[in-house]
């Protein structure tokens, strides 16, 4: 069974990267199916209007509910999660990516302007799970680039998409910590040495060093992640560092 991804957007060309590189190969190999749909095909007027002024006044335009209703009737299989990227959403995380990768597929609804009439997400929740999510604390012009980010994070977790399971399991964020630094040959480069422990062949010492680097980097760059770890995630010695 392949993982099915549908994206509804007014800029279908923006999603061309979905057919390239790692994901493109997964599509070629039949692991993933991708459908990109132009929202304007579900408009009824000659101008193919998808937006209108906000009720209550204010800046910008809001995407009208009717084309979205028809689009989702046509595209979304019953029970499939609807993902709506929005800067006002809950933060997208590695944990979410892993949970979504275990589902049969996803439908993404890309908003532009000031977003989509809220009744679309509210109505869609009757037919299956709906996630309004943000990929970070900054504002993009629309949801398309956020969809590219989320699709890449989800599909690389699907069985068979990434050759090396370990490289997925030891990623930054997989254990709640950032990954430490990596090195390859040559052992000396422009006066900079590879940390000697990595050349020692002592696998226990290397594992201890990697764990320490991971903790050090997380404490310095993402203290919020350290604070959020469960009580038993760190040893007493690690907690004191
Ligand atoms: N649309 C606009 N900004 C966004 C963000 N930060 N995350 C997801 N979708 C968005």
UniProtKB/TrEMBL annotation:
Question: What protein family is recorded?
Answer: Belongs to the RNA methyltransferase TrmD family.
Q: Which gene encodes it?
A: trmD
What top-tier enzyme class does this entry carry?
Answer: transferase
Q: Does the keyword ATP-binding apply?
A: no
* Keywords, sorted A to Z: Cytoplasm, Methyltransferase, S-adenosyl-L-methionine, Transferase, tRNA processing
Q: Where is the tRNA methyltransferase TRMD/TRM10-type domain?
A: 4-226
Species of origin reads Blastococcus jejuensis
Query: What is the stated purpose of this protein?
Result: Specifically methylates guanosine-37 in various tRNAs.
Against InterPro entries, the record matches this protein to: Alpha/beta_knot_MTases, tRNA_m1G_MeTrfase_C_sf, tRNA_m1G_MeTrfase_TrmD, tRNA_m1G_MTases_N, tRNA_MeTrfase_TRMD/TRM10
Q: How does it assemble?
A: Homodimer.
Descriptive protein name: tRNA (guanine-N(1)-)-methyltransferase
Q: Which Pfam families match?
A: tRNA_m1G_MT
**What EC number(s) does the entry state?**
2.1.1.228
Q: Where on this chain does S-adenosyl-L-methionine bind?
A: 111, 135-140
What are the subcellular locations of this protein?
A: Cytoplasm
Q: Which reaction does it catalyse?
A: guanosine(37) in tRNA + S-adenosyl-L-methionine = N(1)-methylguanosine(37) in tRNA + S-adenosyl-L-homocysteine + H(+)
